[in-house]
Amino acid sequence: MKLGGILLFAVLCLLGTAFVWQAAPVEATGPYGVNGPARPTRLGASGRLASTPVGGDSDEDLLSSSSDDLLGGDDLLGGDDLLGGSNEPSGDDLLGGNDLLGESDALNGLGQKSDDVDPLAGLGAKTKIKPADAKSADKQDNATDPHVGLWTEDIYPSAESCRACHPKHYDEWSVSSHAYASVSPMFHRFEQTMTELTQGTVGSFCMRCHSPVATQLEIPRTVSMLDQPAVAREGVTCIACHRINEHYGRSNGDRRIEPGDIHAPVGRGGNGQALYAALAEAKKHKLKTDASQTGPGQKIHNGSFFFEPLTKTDICVSCHQVAVHPGIWLEVVHGQYRAGPAAKRGATCQDCHMGAVPGKDLGYEHCHVAELSGKPYGEPKKHSNHTFWGPGYSIAHPGIFPHHPKAKKYSPRQWLTFDDRAGWGTKAFEDHVPPGMVFPEPWTEADDRIDARKIIDENLAKVHAKRGVSAMTLESAAHVSDPVFYTTPQLGRPLKIGYRVDNASDGHNLPTGSLGAQPQLWLNAALIDPTGRRVWETGYLDSNADLADMHSVDVAEGRVPRDKNLFNLQTKFLINNVRGTDREAALPLNFSLDQLVFLRPGAVPVSVLNHPPLIRMEAHSIAPLDHRIAKYTIPASAFCMPGTYRLSVRMRSRTEPMYLMKLVGATPDMMRRMNENMIDICRSSITFEVR
């Protein structure tokens, strides 16, 4: 009887709770929300968030189309899910804005409903930015409203604005991995998948490093990267490093860009003498040092300040040593560097990754730092290369990346409709356009396609050159020896051989970088018999371009034999099973033990377990100045005839594995570009006799 009463009381409590929950739906209020159900917003033509929510039947709904939305269309905060349902607040604020009571705040104007006003109305500086004193490099105006000129050049200048004085820096940066960070299709697919699988608990963790300006502007996830301001699409742009004035250390990418227009002071690593010499003769050089100056002239920042982290590895650590809850290190390169020989001898990240030779600490190029009126100014001095030498390469549409000043004539969405692979704009294509062929806007005219092709060709040339220096960077560290024969080659007998793989760099492990992307670096070796037939191979790819390991579908279904000899330096994630051994996983999410894999701090400190709970890393990389031996046994069946055999080897590099790309919903074009641009290094062949 007592038990029945308790159960009845519990049922009544649940019914009462359900009634209260339904009677008081949460409403969305806040800087980007409206008083009512949360709905996606769109970016207006003026570059600001439109105040009118996008209707379900509107042709302008950027999220309802099936186009190549880099955010993947129905993302977590815009669909019927735990954070984006019809009665949930928009944005990342589960409480519906900064006001816990849900009342109209200062951002909504004078008590008006936010449906009728621009949600950003009222933002802006009350006073103009004051020019800094040219005699005092450290003087800054701290009274500036950080929201001045939101979405405009007045607060976060783009790299293209810096290009006027620093064209060499811009050209180098425009093809770099820093410039690629925010437009990488693979990044957006990966980040969207992580957001969905973790029910949004990953938050802005990824975006803080890949798009710091978009993060600081608090651009909602419902706004596609394709529709954001140009400076947000620039990823790690100029101001991401040269407009910060605090030492953040291991902040997981969370650092503040100081707001200011193009004239505001910038951080530097040098002495700044050339800048102040130019400012002293501003009229002579036709320099505009203040926003109030009109007419012809070249805009320039009116001061600078020495920022010591720019001269040290400290500037790199906030994004290149990051850990996501519950303590999974996705970037470990700075920790590897700190523990390695390069740090002990005083070398910095910049010495190898911004020096004159890709991947080598062999000094810096010397050239003019700036150009005034198109002419070099000042004396040549140390130049830090802003390509930021590394092994990465682009799989984005060549109209979107590399960044090209003339490409802004068309929007990113328009570029995605330009079929560069079909040869649009080339003479061979345009001379044979079939009658009646229909082109999408704005490519209906041949002249427009030809103009666009010029930009495409220039960008493809830059991508090809970048891929070349990526190979140079890899080869500066990776060395593969000639094969060592542990047994004598004989007819009808197995042969045991080995290759020594060295990490000749003293900086960090080989490979390193973003372990979340799980870059692959493996050996591909093949034996050719006297008739020219390939009789043995390791490091081969299956029909899906995956390595023949446990992640291969072809191996699992028995269509391709497992590569027992595979030498792969890829770092992978291991997750705990309910029972039995650990297993490899494509993402650091343990669905075996936790069906709702919220990214939250672990209940047990990582320092106690020595690895995150339920998840750990399976590292295979080679430490600085260390080596590994790749040992192989070639079966006796490969030696069926006497004669001259050829043994060839190469090391192959790919920034993401195919199984990961499929998991996150990569398009066929993305996967094709990933494999087309695969980098091969350390190629060699030898011949030997079998009797």
How would you describe this protein?
- The protein has 691 residues and is α+β, with helices and mostly antiparallel strands.
- Among the domains are: 261-385, no CATH class; 405-466, no CATH class; 478-571 and 619-690, Immunoglobulins (Immunoglobulin-like, Sandwich), CATH 2.60.40.
- The chain contains 21 helices and 21 strands.
- Strands 11, 12, 13 and 19 form a 4-stranded antiparallel β-sheet that branches. Strands 15-14-20-21 form a 4-stranded antiparallel β-sheet.
- A hairpin with a 7-residue loop joins strand 16 (572-575) and strand 17.
- The longest helix is centred in the middle third of the chain and has 30 residues, at 446-475.
- It is globular and about 85 Å long.
- The protein starts with a helix and ends with a strand.
SS class: alpha+beta
N-to-C CA distance: 92 Å
Described by the principal axes of the CA atoms, the overall outline is globular
CATH class group of one domain: Mainly Beta
What is the CATH superfamily classification of one domain? Immunoglobulins
Largest sheet: 4 strands, antiparallel
| DSSP E strands, number | 21
Q: Provide the residue-averaged pLDDT.
A: 80
Q: Specify the number of helices.
A: 21
Helix content: 10-25%
The whole-angstrom Rg is 28 Å
Percentage of residues in strands: 5-15%
Task: Could you tell me the CATH topology label of one domain.
Answer: Immunoglobulin-like
Name the poorly predicted regions: 6-150
Oligomeric status = single chain
CATH architecture of one domain: Sandwich
